[in-house]
Amino acid sequence: MSPDAAPVFAALADPTRRRLLELLAEHSERTPTELAAEFRVSRQAVAKHLAALEAAGLVASVRVGRETRYRATPAPLEDAVAWLAEVGARWDERLEALRRHLAGPG
Amino acid sequence: MDVRREIVLPAGVGEVWSSLVEPEQLERWLASSVELEAVPGGRGRFVWDDGSEREAIVEDVEPEVRLALRWADPADPGSETAVTFELEEVDGGTRVTVTEASPEPSACAGEWGLALELRVLLAPAAIV
């Protein structure tokens, strides 16, 4: 597993953060204020979630004047999905080998 | 988030359990070299042909029902995952479900919405 995978999974474990990531993936850029309007949580809570997503490399921010605008940067998510697929394929192979082992003579 | 795969094997639960806990049997299907003490707190070591390795600590053993361990690449402790095997007697033999869970340090471990979507996307194989 890549060293960055654990923070990605931890960041995605929270449903609010998953929804934030979805919203950012659907629109090009959003401020914390705009995003907070979609939830019944404070702008500060949204900002904390965005910080966790940014630490995991899932979003990036840019200051435009007095605002901070966030956008999704999905590469770590793709890595996480790739990890899931790779580990899943490995277990499929092992379970097949288990089946052959149990089917064998003796 | 976790990876889950299952298979139904035409064998009794006792036979399948032995293949999960006896190193000589594990070497036939899981890894090329296996050391394992299948007791809570027991140690394990798995080495594969490609040179990769895992050192394991056994967490839970319920004979013929469940084997749970944590393992990691000794060169990369951050790679630790939790692996769980669950056995269930079914029509036709024994269902083996294996789960490998990515490290989940937070208290939000109950939220599996995305994991569920990704499992559907990755299409678990149930082979009979």
Overview of the molecule:
The complex is a heterodimer of chains A (106) and B (128). Chain A has five helices and two strands. With 106 residues, chain A is mainly alpha-helical. In chain A, strand 1 (59-64) and strand 2 form a beta hairpin. In chain A, helix 1 (5-12) runs antiparallel to helix 4 (43-55) and helix 2 packs across helix 4 (43-55). Chain A is elongated and about 75 Å long. By secondary structure, chain B is α+β, with helices and mostly antiparallel strands. Chain B is 20% helix and 48% strand. Chain B has helices spanning 13-21, 23-29, 113-122, and strands spanning 2-9, 33-36, 43-47, 53-62, 66-73, 76-90, 93-101, 126-127. An eight-stranded mixed beta sheet of chain B has the order 2-3-4-5-6-7-1-8. In chain B, strand 3 and strand 4 (53-62) form a beta hairpin. In chain B, helix 1 (13-21) crosses helix 2 (23-29). The longest helix of chain B has 10 residues, at 113-122. The radius of gyration of chain B is 15 Å and the shape is globular. The chains are: A mainly alpha (106), B alpha+beta (128).
Itemize the secondary structure elements and their pairings.
The complex is a heterodimer of chains A (106) and B (128).
Chain A (H helix, E strand, L loop, with lengths): L4 H8 L2 H12 L5 H5 L6 H13 L3 E6 L2 E6 L2 H29 L3
Antiparallel strand pairs in A: 1-2
Helix pairs in contact in A: 1-4, 2-4
Chain B lengths: L1 E8 L3 H9 L1 H7 L3 E4 L6 E5 L5 E10 L3 E8 L2 E15 L2 E9 L11 H10 L3 E2 L1
Parallel strand pairs in B: 1-8
Antiparallel strand pairs in B: 1-7, 2-3, 3-4, 4-5, 5-6, 6-7
Helix pairs in contact in B: 1-2
